[in-house]
Amino acid sequence: MEFRIAERKDCALILSFIKELAQFTVQRDCERLEWCCLDWNTPSINFYESLKAKPLSEWMIFRVTGDTLNELAK
User: Fold this and answer.
1) The domain that contains 23 carries what CATH number?
2) DSSP output for 24-68
3) Could you tell me the residue range of the domain that residue 22 belongs to?
4) pTM (two decimals)
5) Number of domains in the chain
6) Cα–Cα distance between 15 and 52 in angstroms, integer?
């Protein structure tokens, strides 16, 4: 029971944060708001889809770190 209450509070906090970001985005005449979510995080995916956010399955995230990043920076 406590987990569900905490979960609802977390959703309310996240929704409040996303609304603030949306206001910031619209006020600056930006056309979109994007974020990342791990593909196994079903509760978050469901939450974002409830906001009518669309998953962009055609996009991939690439990362360069450590020695590879240092080598690339040369």
Assistant:
1) 3.40.630.30
2) HHHHTT---------TT-HHHHHHHHHTT----TT-------HHH
3) 2-72
4) 0.73
5) 1
6) 13
